[in-house]
Automatic annotation (TrEMBL), chains A, B:
Species whose genome carries this gene: Candidatus Taylorbacteria bacterium RIFCSPHIGHO2_02_FULL_43_32b
Database matches in PANTHER family: HISTIDINE--TRNA LIGASE, MITOCHONDRIAL-RELATED (PTHR43707:SF1), HISTIDYL-TRNA SYNTHETASE (PTHR43707)
Protein name, as recorded: Histidine--tRNA ligase
Gene: hisS
Assembly description: Homodimer.
Subcellular location: Cytoplasm
GO MF terms held by the record: ATP binding; histidine-tRNA ligase activity
Amino acid sequence: MTDKGLSMEPYKGVRDFYPEDMAIFRYITDTMRQTAELFGYEEYGASVLEPSELYRGKSGDEIVNEQTYTFIDRGEREVTLRPEMTPTVSRMIAAMRRNLPMPIRWYSIPNLFRYEQPQRGRLREHWQLNCDLFGVNSVEGDAEVILLASSIMRAFGLTETDFVIRVNNRKIMNFIISDYLKLDDSIGKKISRIIDKKEKLPVAEFKKMVTSAIGEKDEILLTLLESKNFEEFVSHLPKNETLNIALQEMRTLIESLENKGVRNVQFDQTLMRGFDYYTGIVFEIFDTNPKNRRALFGGGRYDNLLSAFGVEPLSAVGFGMGDVTMRDVLETRGLLPKYKNPAYLAIIMAEQQCLPYASELTRKLRADNVAVSMDISGKKVGDQIKAADKKGIPFILVIGDDEVKSGNLKIKELATGVETVISDEKLSAFFKK
Amino acid sequence: MTDKGLSMEPYKGVRDFYPEDMAIFRYITDTMRQTAELFGYEEYGASVLEPSELYRGKSGDEIVNEQTYTFIDRGEREVTLRPEMTPTVSRMIAAMRRNLPMPIRWYSIPNLFRYEQPQRGRLREHWQLNCDLFGVNSVEGDAEVILLASSIMRAFGLTETDFVIRVNNRKIMNFIISDYLKLDDSIGKKISRIIDKKEKLPVAEFKKMVTSAIGEKDEILLTLLESKNFEEFVSHLPKNETLNIALQEMRTLIESLENKGVRNVQFDQTLMRGFDYYTGIVFEIFDTNPKNRRALFGGGRYDNLLSAFGVEPLSAVGFGMGDVTMRDVLETRGLLPKYKNPAYLAIIMAEQQCLPYASELTRKLRADNVAVSMDISGKKVGDQIKAADKKGIPFILVIGDDEVKSGNLKIKELATGVETVISDEKLSAFFKK
């Protein structure tokens, strides 16, 4: 508390949503919601508070300790503000494993917290659409989820040249690291992280890091990573049955997506995705905007996550799509809608004695489902009109003694200045069309 | 973590929302949202994390320390999971005091946290519609907000005999306590809390508590509290100009609400409402269900809250309406809708070779905005139909070789068993009507 009173700032790294920001948030989440539901995905939800142990086994203690909001409650329970939704949805599915008919299509738009230094596009709190398909252990499941991700991008007005869908398969990469290069677990993890950074590093520096991590095996790996397309990549690999299944899955996936009209798909052997829990395909939606080429969001298959709850594993594939990133992309491309006040009409009183008439008119309009804001501030008419305009209310109606007597009302559209005279009986019908 | 794996329970006192619960939550919040927007209220939002100091000055340290989730972040900042929305909305309005055209009509549906023992209707986390009107310092503002609260109840299908709106005015009660009975501040606070409990206590016990708190002045107060209606109550009060204004406000409010069609209003001199910050009218929506008479939610006028931020005060009136309470009321009265899957149609494949046809059909339907769930589980047809039924998908379509060849499709409505044969070209039109 300063001398001047309490601070008016929100907590560091989180956002206040004034109505114009909230409208954008609503547009983004409504578009996500509508598209997910078009695919038959059902919405679920949960609390932002979760027992901390949920994040321990899987992500490694580092994430729980360093990057989350974790605290002890008054009952000595350790709790965490969820940093991602996948552990929660896995917990919920595990609890109802036997009662939910498969396949399960679920989505949610939770807020997530990360404890990190706020920066552009990386806040401490963001919202994230999560879509997951459970109980389909086939490439067709992978294809559906990628199609859904792509359909949401298209629903926002983005075209297939605006983004590329990069795909890879953990099975292929695991084969290369463990079976082909025969790297042990810790070196395998290290090289995975290096591979993931290839695009961001200068060529020489990347090579140096690879060599320093895996020594003389570097050439085999570099040749694979530098392959220009899937078939060239395959040509550098040995013959192996397990590998062959994974390679065939990749071909089937790309073909299936093409059949569904998704052609902006690219195999990318450097795509790893952060989480340890992925077991099959991984994918990433990549922004091709020349000014800001970057990964927007992604997902993949995680078939083993339920086993952490002591229940039978269940195949699963899904993705998460953040609101901050999407707002940024849509803003850059001019794809966000203009703010509109929820009210169509501002009723403005020229004299206070018009109140009963204005109230009754307002009541009737609302009963007919016309959204009305009635100005009861008692300010001057001119100021009331200015306020309506600034708030983005499209139509105004000034009520004075003449209007009360005659029932003839003059509706004015503020954007065009067009005035329409109409009897009070017909006012609802005017706004219904 | 148990031997069997991680716990599948959510954190104590919070809820998991499986799709059927989420659909109810959505129904409740959508109804709130639509009604608020019909009145021209604009949606805003903020993070659940707030600096703890926001709750200190106003509610007294007790609330921050005992009843909230408060912790220290890694940057030594004290943060709280918001227990109510009014301090947040006041903070946001204060920050933009000069840029927002008055009057301001805002609503939000935030989640709120309280640290207390979970019990029926009182969880550690709930969601609450908050509607506030700023910049209208008149009874007409009070009336609008109460009308909005009443309209939301009506939008849920509740009638005016299902609930009563109890109203009181802090100015009247302050006059009685400070000016008429001349009680000092601490006794005044104590007696306010006792008055608030009148309805819940046996008559004798209540009288004893009043006498023990204020001694020989008890009779004056008890006479006032036992008055059967507003005019009887007024007849026991002394003549005083300030009091008179407050009494006149009460008459105007009840009259204004009656003119707006709200007749289930009752003056209730025992209604105090918990928060210290109220400065004028207070009100409460009271459930008249004989099996469960109780206060559902309420609100009031708070004209001084912005001064805590060192800016000019601003008149404000609003209310909060919780989702747990409303769900309970609507459930008891059978007013909740039946669950519906977002998909209208489940496409079921009899043979896997029908996949390309089924995919293309699905794509076309979705392009026409028909929500479709395609079963790609590879299970037996009978099991796929059972799963669709259990998920609440109203229509099914089984695709086999015959359908692929002929393009004649048999749509079955599961609830009625009615089958319709239709060509694949006309399928979208069938669902559009």
